[in-house]
Structure formats: C-alpha cells, structure tokens
Amino acid sequence: MEEKPSGTGLSPEVPPTATVKLRAPQKRRAESSRSTGPSKKKARKAPRRAAPHFLVHETDNDMLLIISNVGEVQERPTRKVSKRKRKKPQKGQKKPQQRKRLKKPAASRGKGGTLAEQPGIVGSLGEGSQVLLPTTHPATGGSWGEQLPVEILVQIFQHIVASEGSVPFLCRVARVCRLWYGAAANPVLWQKVSLGHCWAAPGQKWSPTVEKRVLGTVEWLASHRFSRLRDFALCHWKNHVPFVLKEIGKSCPLLASLKLLHCSGVTAESLAMLAECCPELESLNLQHSQVHPSAVVSFLEAAGSRIRHLWLTYSTQTSAVIAALSSGSCPGLRLLEVNTDIKRVSQHFQLPIEQLQVACPHLQVLRLLNVVWSPKTSPRSAPSSQGFPELGELCLATTSYSFVNDSTLQRLLWASDRLRVLDLRGCFHVTPKALHQLPCPDLEQLYLGLYCSASDTRLPLEGIPLVTQKWSHSLRELDLAGQGFSEGSLERGMAVLAQGQSPTLRSLNLTGTKVILSTVCALLSSCPALSYLNLSSCRHLPRGTKKAYRGREEIRQCLQHLLASTGESL
User: Can you tell me the distance from the alpha carbon of 13 to that of 7, in angstroms, rounded to the nearest whole number?
Assistant: First the structure.
C-alpha cells in the first residue's frame, strides 16, 4: 500500500513520476496567471526632497543671505520598520553569504574641501548681488542641484535672460530637473519675451505638423508663463500674427510695449483687441511691418491717450497717421520715429509742424530718418503754437535730398531750450549762422556730416567758429564729415575748442575736410577726454595719419606721429 505524502515533503518510496504529477497543477496555475495579462507595476514614487538646512533672506540692495538653521529645526524621528525575520537554514543547507558594504569615497562623503564643508563662502552673481553660503549638510550622490536655493537659481537665470532673452533659454533649462523647472516658471523671468521665426530655416514654410506645434506652444506660453509680461516682440512672422496677438491680449493685462518687426498680416481687429485688453500698453513699434494705415489710425483713436512711444516705417499712406497725430489722438506722446524701408520711396509727405506742436506738447524725441519731407504751411486760423519745450533729441538725417533749411529748423526748435542731440546729416541747406541762433545753450551731440552727393549745391565756406564758440563747454560729439569749410575757418573753429580746453569732447569726425596739421596737433593736446578721431581722406595731412583712431592710446600715437612729421616732440 502506498503512503501518502506528508506536509514536509515527499516520502522516498514514492516514484519520481508521482512528483511530476503532484507539481503539474501548480505549474499550470502559474502559467494561467501569466496568460491573463501583465501584472500592473506600482507607480514609482519620486523621492522626497530633504528639507533645506537654510533660510533665504532678501535685503534691500538685492543681496540674498542664506542663513543656516542647522540645529534649530528638529529632525523628524525615523519611522520604526519591522525587521524581517530571517529563516533559519535547514540542516544540510549552507548559510547565505552576506554582501559586503562598500565604503563611499571621501569626495561623496563631503570630505576633502567640498563646498558644503567650507563655511563662510561668499559668491557673486554679478554687480550688486552677493551670496553668503553657510555650512550645510553635504550633498549625497548626484543631488547637488537639489541643495541649490531656488532664489539663487532665479537670479542666475535673470542675468542670462537679460543677455540672451527668455526664449528659448527658459524652455530648455526647464527640462533639466524639477528644481530648474520651478525656477524657470518664475514670472519675474518672463517680463520681456521676443519670439522669432526660429522653428524653420529662413525662407522656408512651416509644415502642418510644425505649424500645429508652434501655435500650441504659443498658446501654452501665453496662458502659463506670460501673466506678468511687460515687453513683447514678434519678429519675421508672415502668418498667424492675429492669432498670437489674440493670445497675448487674453493673457497679458500688464503688457506695456509691443514690437511687430518685419511682420505681415496685422489686422485692425487684432490691434483693436490689444487696445481694449491691455490698459497699460504705451509703446507700439510697427517698423518694417505690413500694416494698413487705417488699422493704425483706429488703434490710435482707441488707445492714443496712453501711447507714449510710436515707431513707424514710411509708406505712401503715412500721411494719414501723421494727420491723426496732428489732430490730437496722442496728447502724451514722448517719442515719434518715422524711417524708411530698404526700398526708397520717391514720394514725400508734408509735416504740419505747428499743428503737431499743439497736439503733442510733451514730445521729447523726434526722428525722421532718411525720409523726404517738407514743412506744411500753417493756416492762419490755426491756434498759436508753444513749440516743443521738452524736446531733447531731433534727428533729421538723410542720404537723399533734404528740404530742411534755416527757416524749417527755426520753426521746429524756437522753443526747445532742453535740446541735447541734433542730427542734421545730409541737411546741406542749414547754415552755421542758423545754428548759432538756436535757443539751445547746452547741446551735447551735433552731427553735420554730409554723406550724400551734393556737388550741385553750394556748401558754406565760413562760419564754423560760430558753432564751436556757442557749444565748446558742452559738446561731447561733433561730426563735420564732408563739409566744405575753408582751411582758415576750420583752423579758427578748432582753435576755439583748443583754447577752451574742452573737457567733454569725446568724438570728433573730420573726414574729408580741409583741416591742416597744426590744427590737429593743437586740438589733440587740449582735449584730454577725446577717444575717437576720424581723419580719413584729409588731403592736407601727411600719409599714414589719414584714418580713424579709437581709444586714448591710438590718439596718443597719432599725436606723436604728427609731431614727428613736423620735427617737434611732446
């Protein structure tokens, strides 16, 4: 009679075939459990970051102090974990070999001059910001990034964002780790953003996949990162500009400056939405963008009362925008710039000077760059103008024909006693006598260079001493390139600067003038702050000196060369 198997094992009398029959059901059970489907793995929990052993305190002068709190914060008691009972080996079985614990190297334990073991380390994040690093617990393994305070990481990112921009830098560093993701999401870093056409090579169109991804990215950034956006620029976008402006209008109530550079498809509806949804918008730059003037006019009528800065590119319909400004749509305007595209426009517009002065009495900067314009006759019924009393910069530079003469300059600047910058390059009809009569006592930058062909015009030969005598005490930059003043006039004019010991003159451009050797030597000896001098194409100077000099050392060598050619010494 066969014996039944006991609970501890099979009887030695049982044949081997019986053991297979008894184990087969267990094997089938295991295979059936595998066939039902893969077992769900438990989600791996992210390791809990240890509490920092410091406190971050921000002072008034942008200094971050990291104060150690080691010893003050009581550590959490470790949880009691029930130890597993080791099974005693049965008789005849070998004891399992215990694994030997490897000792950590000294570098990982914080020995040998690690940052965590050096108390009182002072780090610098740039000008005006210092960091005091106290003694902290050494970082274990690769967790050094988790020990870095978020405040310091944000300040590091601020310096990089200031030089390289928010996009794509912040989008890339956010993928490093969770700590960097949280630091890159700080709204302080997203106050100034510029989006270019960076998803494809220049001249290539987006594929449908890339287009969908780009629009999704812009929508996500606007809703999750642009809550404190102040300055936004969109460059070289030929499509989807209304979509971007719509997202900006919905998510950026603090927007103050908008730049649309080399963009196409800007609609009146998108600009009107920005005027309604962004109550702090005060700066609009539409240079080299295809925008219909009616859209700009409707925007100025809706939001012109708060617009302070306006940049435009001249077109055949710019007169409509100028008319809207002259009618009083932007009474608080501070800066107005109108320039031209690469393609020259042969037509010119008329500028109503007196009406613009009445409509924009607070204008501080007026730039009409390389545009052909003429002053419009003021009607008799027009109200009396107070001029531009706050004007500090007037730029009328051009490389084409200019209608600006002494009368036009007087109409523009008769009340501008705060003028500091006057750029009249290419305005060959303006005479030194008219400049001497201007009510600007402290002019700092004066540009009178001629960079266009003016062979058919009669250039002034005298009068430069009137200019240098009036502003010798305040001039910092003077440009006389291409002017046809005589040798005597230039000698007397530069002698005024030399006798006055001009302490402020830093830049002097005498390209193509008739200045002589003795005049240059006297001028260099009496202008200690001069750091730029251009003597290119000066026919009356010796060879080897007709070039541009930058820096005090090059100017000193120039003076030595000039004196050596005359037989004198310093």
Answer: 15
